Amino acid sequence: MRPISLSDSRPKISTMPRPQTEATAYLNLYKLSIEKKRLQCELDSIEQRRHRIQKRLSFLESQVAEMQQSAQVSTPKLVSVEKNSAPDSALNMLFLEY
Q: Domain limits of the chain?
């Protein structure tokens, strides 16, 4: 067996561009059509996701409105207390030490 040299494993690079043939043009058309289909599918999936998100948001907004309404109904009315009804000296203070 002969040893593998570095020159054998390197790819051959040409600085000259490939000639524009009919096959190259068809290959480029194929690549563009494939990319167009991929992007269209991606756009469709984004639209479907957007629709699901909007549907969920509207559902959440309706639930928040219902909960706010039920909270207002179930909350007892607070009676306002006059400042002069209970003087500060009437409060009993208790100090606890830990």
A: 21-73
